[in-house]
Amino acid sequence: MMRTNQMYGKNKLTLTVIMGLMMGIMIGTNPGTAMSQSISYSGTTIPSATQIVDSLNKIWSLSSLKTVMKNGSPAGYSNNVTLILYYSGVIYQENSSGGWWSWTNGIWVGASDPRVGISGVCGSANGVAVSTSPATNLCSSGTSTPISGSGPWNWDCNGTMGGSDAFCSAPLSQSVVSVSGTTIPPASQITDSQNNTWTLSSSSTVLKNGSAAGYSNNVSLILYYKGVVYQENLAGGWWSWIAGTWTNSSDPRPAVSGVCGSANGVALSTAPTANLCSSGTASTVTTNGTLWNWTCNTSSCSAPVQPSAVNGACGSSNGVSVSTTPTTNLCSSGVATTVTGSGPWNWSCDGTSGGSDVSCSAPLKPSASASGTTIPSAIQIVDSQSHIWTLSSINTVLENGNPAGYSNNVSLILYYNGVVYQENFSGSWWSWTAGAWVSSSDPRSGVCGSAKGVAVSSAPTLNLCSSGTSTAVTGSGPWNWSCIGSNATAVNCSAPSTTSLSNLFGVNLAGAEFGQNFPGTYGMDYTYPAATELDYYKSKGLTLIRMPFAWERMQPTLNSPLNTAEVGYMTNFLNAADARGISVILDVHNYGRYGTGSFSDFTYHGSIIGSTQVPVTAFSDFWSRMATQFKGHSSLLGYDIMNEPHDMGGASVWPTAAQAAVNAIRRVDTTHKIFVEGDGWAGAWSWATYNSNLNINDPSSLLVYEAHQYFDSNDSGTYTSSYDATGAYPAVGVDRLQPFATWLTAHGYKGWVGESGVPNNDSRWLTVLTNFFTALKNDGIWGTYWAGGPWWGTYTLSCEPINGQDSVQMSVLQNYPSA
For the whole model, what pTM was predicted? Predict the structure, then answer.
C-alpha cells in the first residue's frame, strides 16, 4: 500500500508540471515565469487599492493581521500597518503610531511620508470685479471648489497632500459710476468710469481697488470730477491721477461762495461737527474758549461755547466730626453756601451751568468717654478718635454703626485707658488692637507683676503688680500678696523662697489632650478642666497644676495663628487659676509628634519633629506664639515644651528641637520657667541611656529637666498585673528614680517628675508612692501626680473624687502640698 501511494504521488506531480507547461505555452509565456501585470501608479495606496504592483512586478498587499505581504509572504517584520504607499518606485508603510518606513535593500528603514503637500493659491480671477460668475483662472495651484454666491462670488483652491486651502472671491462689478463732484469725505468710496473703487485709508493714503494708488500722504480729500480722480493733502496741495501716477494739479471745481450752515450761532458745549456749511467747504473747527470758529471757503462762521454743567459735590469736611464751624474743604466741586448751625453744621454745594446741588453736613465732635465707661450702663462709648461704640441687639460690638471685627455673645463693652474691651458671656475678655480683637483680660482687675513666681531669699518689694494695687507682702518664704484692681477684683500672687523650691508638688489635670481624633470636637473628644476642679485640689493644698493639651487643637495648621476657640478655652482655665492663686505648667502632650486625623495609638500619631512634614522651625514657631499669647497670666509657672518624646530617629534630633523651642520662648518671655523632658519617654530609670547629650542652654537660667516614672514591670503606667506579679516592693520607685537624680546632681541641674501614679487596687502601692514622693522631696525634685481630670471615670490611677469621696491616692497626695 505504501509504494502504490508514493508512485501515485509522483505521477500526480508529473501530471501537474506537464499541465502547467502546457498552460504556459497556451498563454504565450515562458514556463516558470509569473504572468506580467501592470505596474501601479506612483501615489497608489492600500487602502483604497487592494494591491500594489511595483516596477519589479512584485505584488504587495496588506494582511488581515495588519502586516505587509510581498507576493503573499511577509515582507520583513511589520506590525499595526495602516497604509502601504507606492511612490516614485519605492514601497512605504505607515503604522498606527504614525511612523513611516521604506523598503530598502530587502528591509524596512525608518522614513517619512514622501509625498509633498501642495497648497492652494487663488488665480488671477480672485479680486477682479465681474458682472457674471467667473469661470477661468480660478486657481493658480490646487483644486477649485464649485463657485457660490451671486456677487460677490466665492470659491476655494484646495491644497493636495496636506497642503493648505485658499479662500478666493470676485466682487460684483459696480454698474454705477460716482457723480462728478463726489468727495471722500463725506462719501466712503468713489467708483470711476473704469469701475475702479477709490477709498481713503485709515493712514490718510489713497487706495485703488484696495491697494495703494502710487505714493500719497496726509490726504484730507479725494475728489471725482469730470472723470478724473483728484486728491488734496493737509497742506492744501492738489494732485490728479493721470496715466497711473499723481500729477501736481489744483482744485478743478469752479469757485463757490461759502455760506455758513445751520450750526452757525447755535451755542454748544462741544465742537460742532454737522451742518457747518450750506455751501463751500468747512475748515477745521477751533475755539478761543468763548466761540467755536470755522470757515466755509472764505466765509467766517462761529457758535458760542456753552459751559458744561458742573454738579455740586461735598468736600472732605462732609461727615467729619468737628468742634467748631468748618471753613475749608467744604466742596470738591460747585459753590459752597454759608455754613449754618452749631453742630451739626450744614451747607450746600451748588452746581453751575445747570448742574445739580448737594447738601453737606459735619456733626459735632463728641467728647471722649471717661476711662472705665461700660455698656451697659452707658448706651454708647466715644473713644479718643471720636469713634462711637455700641452694643447691638444681637450682642455684637458696633463701631460707628458697623460690626467691629467678629464678636458674639458680648455681655459688656469697656473703655479703659484709651482702649476698647469686650467681655462675652463665657467670661472671656478681648481688646480692640490694630483693628482686630485680641485675647485679653479685664484691665481693671489686679494682675500679678513679674515678681510673681520668682524665687527670692527675702520678701519682694518691686514689680508686685502689673495692674492694680498691691497689698502688704506676708509670709517668710513663700511670700504672698494680692493685686487689687479698680473693679475690686483681687488676684493672689506668690514668690517662693530659694530654699523651698523643692516642695513644689501637685497634680496633672487631664482632658484637653484626650481623644484619638485630631483636632476633634470639643465636649465630645476632649474637654478642659472646670474651675470647680481647681477649687477641689486647692482645698487639698495642691496648687500646682500640670495642664496637658494637644498641639493640633491649639494650632490646627503649622506655622499659623493659634486657634481662637482653643485660646479661649485655655484663657478661661488660666483666668480661673489666676483668681485662685494656682500655678500652672502648660504641657503640649504630643510625644514628639504632630498629626491630624484618627489614630489608634495617639502616642505614635503624626510625624516626628525634625521631619520634612514637621520641621524644627514649626516647633519653635508654635512655642513663640504660645509664650506671646499666655505669658501675661499670673498663674503661669512655665512651659513643658513636649510630653514624652520617643523614637525620634536620632540622638541629636530631640536636643536640637528642644533648644530651638527654648530660644523661641526666650525671645518673647524671659521670666517663666521652661521644662524640658528627656527622650525615651522621659523615663527616670533609663535617663542615662537616652539623654546623656541633653544639655540645653537657657539664657534666663530658669530651665528644669523633667522625667516621668511609673512602678509597674515595664515602667509604662498601665499596671496590667498585680503588685506581686509585677515584682513591686516598697522602694521600687526610689530605686528607679536614681539614674535621673544622679544625672541632675552631676550636672547641677534642677529636676522635676511630671508624671507618676499608682493604681487604687492594693494599699501596698500607696507605700510605694509615699516613699517615692519622700525621695523627691529629699532630693529637691518637684513632682505632679498622674492624674486628675473630669473625664477619668473608673480609671485606676485617677485621683478624682467619686460621689464626693476622695480617692485612696489623695490620702498620700495631701501630705505633699504645694509650697
Answer: 0.46
